[in-house]
Amino acid sequence: MKSFHHGYLLTGDIEQAKEEALKIICDILGAAKQNLSTNPDFCFLQTPLFSIKDARTVRENASRKSFLGKGRVFIIESANITAEASNALLKTMEEPGGLSYFFIITPSAENILNTLRSRLAHLRFNVSQNFSFKKTEFVKKFLRKPPDKRMEMVSVLASEREKTLAFFDCLEFVLADNFKRNFSAEKAGSLDILLRQRNFALRRGASLKMILEYLCFVL
Length: 219
Fold this sequence. Notes:
The chain is of the alpha/beta class. It has two domains: about 1-130, 3-Layer(aba) Sandwich (Rossmann fold); about 130-219. About 50% of the residues lie in helices and about 15% in strands. It contains nine helices and seven strands. It has helices at about 15-30, 50-60, 85-95, 115, 135-145, 145-155, 160-180, 185-200, 210-219; strands at about 5-10, 40-45, 50, 70-75, 80, 100-105, 120-125. The strands form two sheets. The chain has a five-stranded parallel sheet, sandwiched between helices. Strands 3-5 form a two-stranded parallel sheet. α2 (about 50-60) runs parallel beside α3 and α5 packs across α7. It is globular. The mean pLDDT is about 85.
C-alpha cells in the first residue's frame, strides 16, 4: 500500500510546484491529470490572499467523507496566507476523521506560520538553499550506509538538540529533492517517516538518541 504524507508545502517556481503537486495527487486518487477537474474528491483553491474564511471553507470540505474512498485532496495556491488562516489549517490537519491531503503552494515558506510549516513536507523549486555542500554530502553519505554505520555517524548529535534538528532539516531537504527527481511511494514514505520523527523530537523530554536510532534503521 502506498504511503503519502498528509501535507506538502511547495515553494519557489509556482508552475513547477503545481506540476509536482498534480503528479502526486494523480497517484493518490488513481486518476489521470485531465480528469481531476471532475473528480469529486479534488479541490483547487487559487487566491491572492488566503483568509480565515477560505480556511473555514477548506475545513468544512475536509470534514466530509471521500466520495471515491481514496481521500480528499486540496491544493491551496496563494501568495499570502494570513496567520489566522495558517492556524485554522493546522487545526484542520490535526483533527481526526476522514483522510485528507493538503498541498500549499506559495512563493516562500515565510508566508506561513512555523507551527504549520513543521507539519508539512517541504518541496523547493528553483530556489537557493541554506544548506552547505558539506552538510548535504554528509546526509547523502548517511543514506548510503547500513544502519550500524549510520549510528556511528550520528552518535554525537544526540546530546546536542540544535545540531540534531539541523540534521533533520538537511535530511528533509535531501529526501525531498530525491522525491522530486524520482517520484515513488517508497520515497514518499521515507519523507513521511522523517517528518513524524522530527515532530516527536520537538516535544519536551523527547529522546533524541532513540529517534536517531530509529531513523538509522527505517530510512
